[in-house]
Amino acid sequence: MLWERASSTNISEVGFDPTTSELQVRFRSGATYRYVGIPESLWQQFKETGFSGRFLNTDIKGLYEYERLI
Hints:
- Helix content is 23%, strand content 36%.
- It is built from 2 helices and 5 strands.
């Protein structure tokens, strides 16, 4: 998984693995979450928003299975 820096006030880095459809989001607080079943098209939309916390909250959280890793 390759990580990309985010220009968000809450999100520091994000990573996506297209082979497993797994998204990982690392917050500035240090917490990291893994979301599964993310379509690559949604990943592209997320990237286009600059990894906005708002996009995460409205288009990913609660719609896809997730777990806190750290």
